[in-house]
Write the structure tokens for this entry.
Amino acid sequence: MIKAAVIGVGYWGPNIVRNMSASPDIDILYCSDLQQERLDYINGLYPAIKTSTNFKEIISKPEIDLIAVCTPVYTHFEIAKEALLAGKHVFLEKPMTSTAAQAEELINIAEQKNLKIFVDHTFIFTGAVKKIKEVITSGELGDLYYFDSVRVNLGLFQHDINVIWDLAPHDISIMHYLLGSYPESVTATGADHLGNGLEDIAYMTVYYPNNLLAHIHTNWMSPVKIRQTLIAGKKKMAVWDDNHPSEKVRIYDKGIEVVQSKDQIYKTLIQYRTGDMYCPKLDGTEALKDEMANIAYSIESDIKPLVDGHAGWMVVKILEAAQESIKARGKEVKV
Amino acid sequence: MIKAAVIGVGYWGPNIVRNMSASPDIDILYCSDLQQERLDYINGLYPAIKTSTNFKEIISKPEIDLIAVCTPVYTHFEIAKEALLAGKHVFLEKPMTSTAAQAEELINIAEQKNLKIFVDHTFIFTGAVKKIKEVITSGELGDLYYFDSVRVNLGLFQHDINVIWDLAPHDISIMHYLLGSYPESVTATGADHLGNGLEDIAYMTVYYPNNLLAHIHTNWMSPVKIRQTLIAGKKKMAVWDDNHPSEKVRIYDKGIEVVQSKDQIYKTLIQYRTGDMYCPKLDGTEALKDEMANIAYSIESDIKPLVDGHAGWMVVKILEAAQESIKARGKEVKV
Amino acid sequence: MIKAAVIGVGYWGPNIVRNMSASPDIDILYCSDLQQERLDYINGLYPAIKTSTNFKEIISKPEIDLIAVCTPVYTHFEIAKEALLAGKHVFLEKPMTSTAAQAEELINIAEQKNLKIFVDHTFIFTGAVKKIKEVITSGELGDLYYFDSVRVNLGLFQHDINVIWDLAPHDISIMHYLLGSYPESVTATGADHLGNGLEDIAYMTVYYPNNLLAHIHTNWMSPVKIRQTLIAGKKKMAVWDDNHPSEKVRIYDKGIEVVQSKDQIYKTLIQYRTGDMYCPKLDGTEALKDEMANIAYSIESDIKPLVDGHAGWMVVKILEAAQESIKARGKEVKV
Amino acid sequence: MIKAAVIGVGYWGPNIVRNMSASPDIDILYCSDLQQERLDYINGLYPAIKTSTNFKEIISKPEIDLIAVCTPVYTHFEIAKEALLAGKHVFLEKPMTSTAAQAEELINIAEQKNLKIFVDHTFIFTGAVKKIKEVITSGELGDLYYFDSVRVNLGLFQHDINVIWDLAPHDISIMHYLLGSYPESVTATGADHLGNGLEDIAYMTVYYPNNLLAHIHTNWMSPVKIRQTLIAGKKKMAVWDDNHPSEKVRIYDKGIEVVQSKDQIYKTLIQYRTGDMYCPKLDGTEALKDEMANIAYSIESDIKPLVDGHAGWMVVKILEAAQESIKARGKEVKV
């Protein structure tokens, strides 16, 4: 049984408390928050959890194995570093840190102390992403051509981060997991319509080797909610519509083939091929449940977690590059 | 009655022949094509039309008022220039020319000789675009924030132009018509997966003054057909789904407003507002019929056409800039 | 503050416990169930609630105002009658009773003792139904022509009731609330594919005065989930798609008009008219919250509840008629 | 080469003329219509076709093999009978005749004279219906449970027939072709909202042996266009959405299975099973082209057509029964 503490129970933290509590492998002993009323709220639901407004006090508890950090992003580094130095495994909300350099430092400390870092990229544990990964890995799609993700809706504006730091960590973590290779560079554009310096709409292209192109559109100002990802390979193509109530993933037996044409002036030489489409049944297990199990198993068996510090670092690295590119109106930034 | 000739009756030309023939205001007297079999095909359908494999012969006919140029893009300039110099009005397939410089030269000649140039941006004449233009012009959307257009499907690959020269002229012409202002610069990315130097997927951001951002995604390799445009303003937002059989345009009474929050740490200050949505009834007149009527009326009354040479030039100008930016991996190119 | 007890906390009862607990106007003091483990489950969540496996014991408590009956349908009558005779208001799960005669007896007892009966027709309290009621009442649709409701999915089969007793109470209660008139007769068809005498698919037509026709399709064996209702009037038509994530209710400015045709042999005299469509913004309050508030207010102010015993009786009356008609292969049964 | 004549070129006849003209196997020599202007219209398009306002004159031509009857339904019998008696094969618009007795008489005459009757049930030749037939025949769906078809839109009202005679021939012909067995009885309901005695909305249940239930909803007064058919079998289920631009047929690996439950009071014994879904690629050949080829092949090779007089008779038989049942408010009528 992993003994855990959660630091930060404001907006998202209570979900982590709930999921860790429900996990048969994790026991939450402590929670911390700067606001006493948030701790009172938690205690109303979970009377057995001990609380403190001082996170350092909690980190110092010897019985704790794992510190979950659910505070604002700019505080992740300080808290996680202190936890690692105190010999605790660390679970971090996404994005992992404010800078890639911070992420690297945490990774180094963890390696030196043989501790694990987990980052809360929950989508990696959904049935949809697991199935698409399986389809790609099996070779069913063939060599990948592009990854195109749209995540737009009329959203709550964040007051301290822009739309890419808010929404794109989902898409980048999924992209990195599915494509499985190291990106070359990023170019991004965006606009801030409220004059507070925080983009509310952004487009990001990520160049991968072998002509693989990735693109992410995030937007807080769309009248309609779209959560759609297209992934095309040489042999087949996949569409993931996360809004669809039942048929989220579709695999199309569609592709391009070269055809010899007699009439070369009016006809083209490259034509498309189209066959059946299928929607695979997806694993219905709740993603957060799977994630908690993976965390517990990874600590207990000392194996690499599915989403480790490197995955978290990659997300921050690409966010940083995109941010820099947006400010320079699409300038290519190496990753 | 306008007397017209059509040059080029390969892939698209027959549609122009059909629509001009059906117009009560236009009479087609001649067709030209390099291939005799295409002319025979036209004569099978329209026995009264005279044909020639020599386009110069047709341009020289004194009774002709209007020359429609439906040949491959790289030949537009030469044919159109000769037609203008012979004193004929000119109707050009989109994109108007291969370079913006060519478009400028044609515009100059036409102005000197008091002739009209028409460019076949058919979407401008659809009920959907007319309605959206009306909604924007009336101020119903408020100041515009962004224009986002997606035009993807598994398409016929062109053997001489890439996906932006093939598909984006639709989106650019619509964008230019609806936004009504002059763009500042373009940044674009894309990839060529078949190794022939022609991008099959491309993303283009167009910067406009006043923080108005436009983005166009064109793609020949999508397993699903998407033709969707989001246009958001300060007051309302519009969605145009051209695939929807009956409800193509939706106007959402949605927007962003600043709200004072008591709990400033966990809540944001900017929230969204949401009200009714409506689908306006659209004018059901066929776009090409309207377009032909506008051409005839423009010549007969000597008034500016709805889609003139400047509109055609703008499309080519942006295509050129996007092309340059794609090759330089997203470098900003001034328009 | 209304003091309540819940009898039956198996499948649906815990939801009632949760909603009554969350209501600022209702206080749950007792729960009863035949199975001790269900009571233990409730006590795990709500330690303050007292429990008993003997419902009679709870009904006899003098401090209780309201008894909620969430047991299997065939036990509703006995429990509710005892509660009414003990001077308690009664809230009944739908359908209210197994027979219309039982419903009538309960209504009579309640009237004699000046007690209230509430039936859990939750849909009446949704934003969608409230809006449609408003649109109909305002005369916007004009005289009503038909009501067509489809409620199908691959559902959990019930072991003691057929698909109409399981699903159609939703549609019938909505229909009765929206149409507001007394039906004349019912004809229904159905089939039992598992050989247990319980129909898994059923179609029901309900005849109303003035040529108003209602039809309900319920089905446990549909591969797709459909929850769609069409309501057409002389002036406008409404569509309610309860599966749509955001645009559940659509009002179409569509109708029929008589047109004089010159060419009477090939053209018809009656044509359709089509205008804008709009999706009204719906009240987002949770239906169960509204329902609880209505119950408390009705008891405290001694006013007629929105869903009273007569509404519950009408549902059972139509279910009975439909059942009889199904067994007689569509024979018309007077209501 | 089959030599054909078309009688009736008002509303639908010109489509038959066009398709027969385009067929490499059929040559149209004559057309007839009571109105000279319709014949002039045909001659404008097809100058080689000879015309007459007297259909008897055309039937008597010895060189004609096939008479296509595209006149109003109430005239089908007289014209077709005269054509058969003159030794011609007959192609009839749907519905075949006004009464089943008339259809029987035509079938008898055709058999005696060894002539063929074809009925224009075009949907039988679509890729969607061919694929569903293949899936059913292969046993993939298992024993059939139900067939549910909805065909509703805001339609042109017919001035001489009600909505079932107008729309249901499509559904009935498809149902008969797919289910392949003989129905037992029909019960139907409907309403006439314009007071002309012609129902504009109708529901029809058709009982088949072995608990197979079919239902057809036809409606001229729906604000939305729905063309959807559900077909469920013991093993799998199919959905045909004819409005979907690309994925018309879906095969769901879903069904019902009996599960032993430990907790028999709160859980049911029968649960659903759900697996992958697939959309088979459909044959894209135009249905009318296939139909014409089948007609020509059937005459030339003297084999049974895919849609013969018996198929046409079955449609009329069920329409008659439904009509009788509607007038008797759902009374079961034996077929």
Remarks:
- The longest helix of chain D spans residues 309-327.
- The mean pLDDT of chain D is 94.
- The longest strand of chain D covers residues 221-233.
- The CA atoms of residues 165 and 319 of chain D lie 7 Å apart.
